[in-house]
Design a protein that fits this description.
The complex is a heterodimer of chains A (1019) and B (451). Helix content of chain A is 9%, strand content 47%. Chain A has 1019 residues and is mainly beta. In chain A, strand 34 and strand 35 form a beta hairpin. In chain A, helix 5 runs antiparallel to helix 7. The N terminus of chain A is likely disordered. A two-stranded antiparallel sheet of chain B has the order 2-4. The chains are: A mainly beta (1019), B mainly alpha (451). The interface between A and B is large, with 95 and 92 residues. Strand 30 of chain A pairs antiparallel with strand 1 of chain B.
């Protein structure tokens, strides 16, 4: 069958060469196009012969064009994104063609998957973010740059670790067990969104990106059928235009800092409160430790013993040491720098875009670094009037210094658990480690350990397009996404991982290949000036293969020999392969009648290797319709309404990602005992496993007011995911704990508003704003049909699954404050009224929701002469975050960890009214997982601010440049929140494995605040 | 015409290649292909050993629970993990994931054994009895560990009414069946099932092969576990009989020094059954929690308290095995080093079982209690002979087997109080994991009293 596939390919390529033809008589035209507002030249505008779009040209940087058209051409059509399309007779004044800007959105070209549409004619919901909006933003991952810019798109960084996990949810969480990530498609190639470690999206240089088109509703996304239940992000990279070669050079330099810090006790407070806690515990045992006779074996003796131990060479009684450990978690000299160079241009026949980019970001955490080198070449060749071929190719190298996940003692942030009485270094200058420090000191791991990732990422495709006529073309695309990664780790003799074993080393290698073939026809024709028809039909095939191998060992002779060759004990290793494939057929038809009535129908049949023989194929149809009301006569003369469109869509999309490639099979895998191979059951079969299906209805309204100075969109949607793939608990006496079953359903209902407005627009000053607001309500409609609640209280977190509630809702004990009489922590019993000091008697309640109710973004762009200011506020509202580490850091000394400063408000004597219980050393007074550690996490953030100054045209010309711009930009500059932890944008990487695990904090690093300066030159 | 041909031609591309969807896993095999050959079944049998040796089961946790439940101020859980702490405080929650996993690994091993027993006729005839015997032994052994933890002690009586375990003897293939949604059998029936498995195993299993010693079950491993079961049931004649058979078999001998019995990479002469641990098969929670960072463990989660140390006489070499760490906390030397085997049943226990039963029954089968206790056990550790009384024999057992996972089971069968709880207190019985109750149905699977 592989042969057949090869045949398919060869046929495609040979076909495209086999077809060619030449055409007849032409005449030559020349002209120039300018902006009607300021008569500045418009580069990149398209000029084409009416009814013969194959005769077309694009304007140069000075706005001029040259074009040959068939003899019989009478009219030219001139168009450019963001401007009204006009028609000109060929014998008109071509030397002075003026275009007038329209509202920024209506005539935008939107990429829809296997084609493009004009925004005005869309019947589905697609949010577009232009590459230029996020250009040069000093973040490592484009998803972070998209945060706040599109309605209904929720972006959340797990933490401030650079180059690490970023969660993207389009219209809420759509699945309990399967993937919730959108499908990313770059120039037609679906890319691999998994990797060995780190974030695979950080390998992509987003300065090469022309646009992001985010397909949100089912009608827009259904052409990607089985892969589209969580939405699709179509990424289009930049392409060259005919004309003079245009060079762009950008250099940038800046600083990274944590957004916020958390307050911990200082040395004096630590000593005072720890002793107080010990004395309290002694009093409970009926001992007065201040009586010298009773001191022995008292809690106070234990505590003071600890203080002695923790103080190292110093004396805690004198207060001479007050170490701020938090400070040592951060790199206070974190920089970022970037250089991007690109060149684009070409001739009528050959167009190119090439770029090289270097991006270097120090993380804010010690040991955390990110460096990316990337290059790209995009090339388009017109072979003949009918035949076009091209290639898009990018190669990136990412070099990262990683830190451990948040639950490891060796992760930098856990340094805050150490006591402030411990000096940073001993008298020999060596950083103190356990047992002087309470736990092993992460700084030791930083100094004596390394964790490096080196990734090579190659994403590219080649295409051929054959135009049978002006209305029909065939396109074939072959794409590949190749990842190669090596993770190299070493931990020295005194580190957390390496102590007791004379070092620990690990080497992991990962390779993945994802290749994809698309073949499709596109037909487009206008009949009788009334009926516009566009149809797409085709197939696509995708094959994914990944393999990784690792080996790890101990017992190194010296710390400088860090490769596993020097490990005397190889502890283990593995190699694992994973395969999956998709085969799909799709069809889509768009019909527009009289420029007013729009209809779209699409359907896709997907087959996937991840399902058993009976359930391999899924059918995913979608229909939608739109009515451009403003084209109706009764609105023609309206001064207020310049554009109005109603649209509605329904469709099914599917999800087959994120739950293992062979979940339908009953499997046994290799194991070992006594150094002999063994077989052990690993998976219970479910032959009936099938696609998760998302059924979505969207009703939308697009409007333009006052000559489109104000435009916007309102969308209502209801997305219901059925046949949710769920790990259903089965009786353990079967030898298994779960079975992968399609059961349960979930709903996401919401509303989205987008408003763009041109507030002020005159020759001196321009001010435009864009606002997006989205509200989403997630609800679990059904679990496995038997259970209505799967409680999640695991001692640190409360994320639960409950029918009728949002996924991952916090369900567990409700903290009732402190008994004023004795300082006991109290919880509500199941009746909700009476209280108890016994955690085990506490009732369970819904005590918070990690899903935001509302997310919003507000962007503003102001230009005043050569100065431009743009800023973006982004906000998340109505969600809570639970601090899973509260049981350690806000525990009233249940252990010896340093405590948060709110412990200063502890209960001390009868009558005290406070919500901080009496401190009791190892007394577990109130440190069970409860609403006590749940906090509102609403925030508003100045996500991005850029001020730029462009040199005037005259100066630029003198410098023999095309443009020059100096700018200052910043990310996460201001954060407004009531969250008492580090940063409200958080979901610890210690537990991101399950979709229900949201809103969890556990020593997660705050987000990165960056300020950079840059210079952008074009010539 | 040309156009039409090319359109048809390119349409061919759109016809797909559906065979490309038939992929097979590369590191797993379909369950239908497992029980098809002698070699596969033997590999599955080794897989059952792998499962029971998991840290959540006999690789440390069941021993840890037994010691934490029987702590009685002799040891303390000082670690930060909640789950063992709940066991230590006798305040176990029904969602305790350690307890959940112990249950799951136990039944996972049972399922492998059931699969093997179902397909036993495919095994090569020469090995069939041995394979069947090992599968029966493992199943009986697993059920015995589970019933001790998850049900009231046998010594509390009322065994026909008190619930035991869900007894599953059919393999799970293809899907869950009604056979998995069954109530708990009575404690009496559970013990009968265990005895039946172990007795059959003992019949089927071969004598140890001295030329090619293995670490797997043989006739005397089954006998040794049978002696534990009988002792737990208070059946002293049979407990003595089995222990005596093991001793008299002559295959085992005490190590010269007490310390030689621990921290080994291969079985000692004294080991009747030991879990095999290596750097590559690192399943040893006893080391992980009882040892310290210097020896590759955690921070030292279990502390040995003075009350325990005071039980030894000064010259007792077993006392010298404890060591003090740089936090001035005593640690057990039995679990000090990394990647070492876990002795599970050793010959010394058989001597002490025989001594206790002989004393109780007033007999001297094999040897007198004095010989077993003073001349064999105490002599090795340099301890002076002591009077032969029941309490001395029991104390000797407590010291000899300290921190090896027997404590709470001895406390329960001897009906002794511990940490302020009566021997049959609800809180000394582990809760049935809540996920089991949810998955089976609360009307079918009854939770233990007190939860």
């Amino acid at each position: 069958m592989r042969k057949l596939l090869k045949l398919c390919l060869l046929t495609g390529v040979s076909l495209l060469f086999y077809l060619s033809a030449t055409y007849a008589q032409t005449r030559s035209l020349k002209g120039r196009i300018t902006d009607s507002k300021d008569r500045s030249p418009i580069a990149g505008a398209t000029v084409e012969a009416k009814n013969n779009p194959r005769s077309s040209a694009v304007t140069d940087s000075d706005g001029s064009f040259a074009l040959s058209v068939p003899e019989n051409t009478t009219t030219l059509v001139i168009s450019f994104i963001g401007f009204q399309t006009i028609e000109m007779p060929v014998n008109g004044n071509l030397a002075d063609i003026q275009l007038t800007a329209t509202s920024r959105s209506l005539n935008e070209v939107v990429v829809v998957g296997f084609g493009t549409r004009i925004k005005k004619d869309l019947t589905g919901n697609i949010a577009k973010v232009k590459g230029s909006e996020v250009q040069n933003m000093p973040v490592s991952n484009f998803n972070q740059a998209l945060q706040g810019r599109a309605a209904g798109v929720f972006v959340e960084g797990n933490s401030g670790k650079v180059g690490e996990g970023v969660k993207v949810l389009i219209r809420g969480v759509g699945s309990i067990s399967a993937s919730t990530s959108p499908l990313y498609v770059i120039d037609g190639v679906p890319v691999n969104n998994s990797s060995y470690s780190g974030n695979p999206m950080a390998d992509i240089n987003f300065n090469d990106i022309e646009s992001f088109d985010i397909l949100k509703d089912a009608s827009a996304a259904a052409i990607y059928g089985s892969r589209a239940a969580n939405g699709v992000v179509l990424i289009t990279t930049k392409r060259g235009k005919a004309g003079k070669t245009n060079f762009q050079v950008n250099t940038q330099y800046g600083f990274n800092k944590p957004t916020r810090l958390r307050k911990f006790l200082n040395a004096q407070q630590y000593v005072d409160l720890l002793r107080e806690a010990a004395i309290n515990s002694d009093h409970i045992d009926g001992i007065d430790p201040l009586d010298p006779d009773q001191y022995e074996d008292s809690w106070l003796e234990a505590a003071e013993g600890r203080l002695d131990r923790y103080s190292g060479w110093a004396d805690w009684k004198t207060g001479e040491i007050n170490t701020d450990w938090q400070k040592h978690a951060f790199n206070d000299n974190a920089r970022n720098s970037a250089i991007d160079i690109s060149a684009s241009g070409g001739t009528e026949k050959t167009k190119f875009y090439i770029s090289a980019s270097y991006n270097n970001q120090d993380g804010i955490l010690i040991g955390n670094k990110f460096k990316r080198l990337s290059t790209r070449i995009n090339l388009d060749q017109t072979v003949s009037d009918q035949f076009k071929i091209g290639i898009n190719l990018s190669l990136a190298q990412t070099n990262a210094g990683r830190v451990q996940t948040d639950n490891e003692f060796s992760t930098p942030m856990q340094i805050v658990a150490l006591t402030p009485v411990t000096p940073f270094r001993d008298l020999d200058g060596v950083v103190y480690n356990s047992p002087t420090t309470t736990y092993s000191n992460p700084y030791v791991d930083y100094e004596n350990g390394k964790f490096k990732s080196l990734i090579y990422r190659n994403i590219g495709n080649i295409y051929g397009q054959y135009n049978f006529s002006s209305s029909l073309y065939f396109r074939t695309e072959l794409g590949a996404d190749i990842q190669n990664q090596n993770d190299d780790q070493f931990y020295g003799f005194n580190t957390d991982f390496g102590s007791g074993s004379n070092g620990y080393g690990e080497s992991g290698w990962y390779r993945s290949l994802d290749y994809n073939i698309n073949n499709y026809f596109n037909y487009k024709k206008t009949f009788a000036d009334l009926h516009d028809l566009e149809a797409v039909a085709g197939m696509s095939y995708q094959r994914y293969n990944s393999e990784y191998a690792n080996v790890y060992g101990e017992q190194f002779p010296v710390e400088s020999l860090q490769k596993l060759e020097s490990a005397a004990l190889i502890k283990g290793g593995t190699s694992v392969e994973n395969n999956s494939s998709f085969l799909s057929y799709f069809i889509r038809a768009n019909y527009k009648f009289n420029n007013k009535y729009l209809f779209t129908f699409s359907s896709r049949i997907d087959g996937s290797s991840v399902f058993g023989n009976d359930e391999k194929y899924g059918f995913f149809p979608a229909v939608s319709a739109g009515w451009i009301v403003s084209e109706e006569r009764f609105l023609h003369n309206s001064d207020v309404i310049s554009f109005l469109k109603l649209r509605g869509s329904w469709g099914l999309t599917g999800n087959a990602d994120g739950f293992g490639s062979f979940s339908h099979m009953g499997l046994w895998s290799g194991a070992s005992y006594n150094a002999v191979g063994a077989l052990s059951p690993t998976q219970l079969a479910n032959r009936h496993l099938r696609w998760e299906k998302s059924n979505q209805v969207d009703i939308g309204l697009d409007f333009g007011l006052f000559n489109n100075r104000i435009s916007g969109e309102i969308d209502l949607y209801n997305r219901k995911t059925q046949d949710l793939i769920f790990e259903v608990p089965v009786p353990g006496n079967s030898g298994f704990s779960t079975q992968t079953v399609n059961i349960g359903s979930m709903q996401n209902k919401g509303v989205e508003f987008v408003i763009n407005s041109e507030n002020i627009s005159n020759k001196l000053f321009r001010w435009s704003s864009t606002l997006n607001i989205s509200m989403n309500k997630n609800k679990i409609v059904k679990l496995d049909g038997l259970q209505t609640i799967i409680p999640g209280n695991d001692g640190r977190y409360l994320n639960s699954l409950m029918v009728g509630q949002s996924i991952g809702i916090f369900y567990g004990p409700k903290y009732a404050g402190v008994d004023p009489q004795n300082g006991d922590a109290l919880y509500y019993k199941a009746d909700g009224k009476t209280t108890t000091n016994d955690y085990n008697e506490a009732g369970d309640f819904i005590v918070g929701n990690p899903n935001p109710k509302l997310i919003a973004g507000l962007g503003n762009t102001l230009s005043f002469g050569n100065i431009q200011l743009s800023f973006l506020f982004q906000g998340v509202f109505g969600n809570q975050v639970m601090n899973g580490a509260g049981t350690f850091m806000t525990s009233g000394f249940n252990g010896y960890d340093n405590q948060t400063t709110d412990q200063l408000n502890r209960w001390q004597k009868p009558g005290d009214i406070t919500d901080v219980p009496q401190l009791r050393l190892r007394g577990a007074n109130g440190n069970g997982a409860s609403s006590r550690y749940i906090y509102d996490a609403d925030y508003v953030r100045l996500k991005n601010l850029t001020i730029s100054y462009s040199l005037s045209a005259a100066v630029v010309k003198k410098l023999r440049l095309a443009s020059a711009k100096f700018y200052v930009t910043g990310v996460n500059l201001l954060t407004f929140t009531g969250y008492p932890g580090w940063d409200p944008e958080v979901n610890t990487d210690a537990r991101t494995s399950s979709n229900r695990n949201q809103g969890s904090d556990f020593y997660a690093a705050p987000q990165i605040k960056n300020i950079s300066v840059g210079l952008n030159i074009g010539f | 015409m040309k156009k039409i041909i090319t359109i048809i031609y390119s349409s061919l591309l759109i016809v797909g290649c559906s065979k490309e969807l038939d992929l097979k896993p590369t590191q797993s095999i379909d369950e239908a292909d497992v029980f098809t050959s002698d070699a596969n079944i033997k590999a599955a049998l080794n897989g059952a050993y792998d499962v029971v040796s998991n840290a959540s089961f006999m690789g440390g946790d069941i021993q840890l629970y037994a010691e934490l439940l029987g702590a009685d101020k002799e040891i303390e859980w000082v670690g930060t993990y909640n789950e063992p702490d709940e066991v230590y405080r006798k305040a176990m929650l029904t969602n305790n994931v350690y307890i959940r996993d112990t249950w799951l690994y136990g039944y996972k091993a049972v399922n492998i054994c059931n699969n093997i027993l179902e397909a036993i006729n495919i095994v090569d005839e020469n090995d069939r009895d041995r394979v069947q015997g090992e599968a029966l032994f493992l199943r009986g052994q697993v059920y015995f560990e589970l019933v001790k933890l998850f049900a009231k002690p046998y010594s509390a009586g009322n065994t026909a009414a008190n619930p035991g375990l869900q007894l599953i003897s059919e393999p799970t293939v293809g899907d869950i069946s009604d056979a998995n949604r069954v109530p708990r059998s009575s404690l009496e029936d559970t013990y009968a099932f265990i005895l039946d498995d172990l007795k059959q195993a003992k019949e089927l299993l071969p004598e140890p092969d001295l030329d090619e010693p293995t670490v797997y079950a043989n006739k005397y491993v089954a006998a040794a576990v049978l002696s534990r079961v009988y002792l737990q049931m208070g059946d002293y004649p049979n407990a003595r009989q089995e222990a005596n058979e093991v001793i008299e078999s002559g295959y085992y001998s005490l190590t010269a020094n007490y310390t030689d019995e621990f921290n080994n990479t291969s079985n000692t002469s004294e080991d009747i059954f030991a879990l095999q641990v290596s750097a590559q098969h690192d399943e040893n929670d006893m080391h992980l929690f009882w040892s310290i960072i210097d020896y590759g463990a955690r921070e030292g989660d279990v502390a040995i308290l003075q009350k325990h140390l005071n039980l030894y006489t000064a010259q007792d070499k077993r006392r010298a095995l404890f060591y003090i760490d740089d936090q001035d906390i005593y640690r057990s030397g039995k679990w000090k080093l990394q990647y070492k085997n876990i002795p599970f049943i050793r010959l010394a226990e058989m001597y002490l079982t025989r001594a206790e039963c002989n004393f109780r029954l007033g007999g001297d089968l094999g040897a007198t209690p004095d010989e077993d206790m003073n001349e064999t056990i105490r002599a090795r550790v340099g301890a002076d002979p002591i009077a032969v009384t029941l309490s001395n024999i029991l104390m000797e057992r407590r010291l000899e087997l300290a921190h090896e996972g027997q404590r709470i089971h001895d406390i329960k069968r001897l009906k002794q109080p511990v940490d302020g709880f009566e021997y049959d207190a609800n809180k000394l019985v582990m809760p049935i994991p809540i996920r089991e109750i949810n998955a089976v149905g609360e009307n079918i699977l009854k939770q233990n009293d007190g939860y």
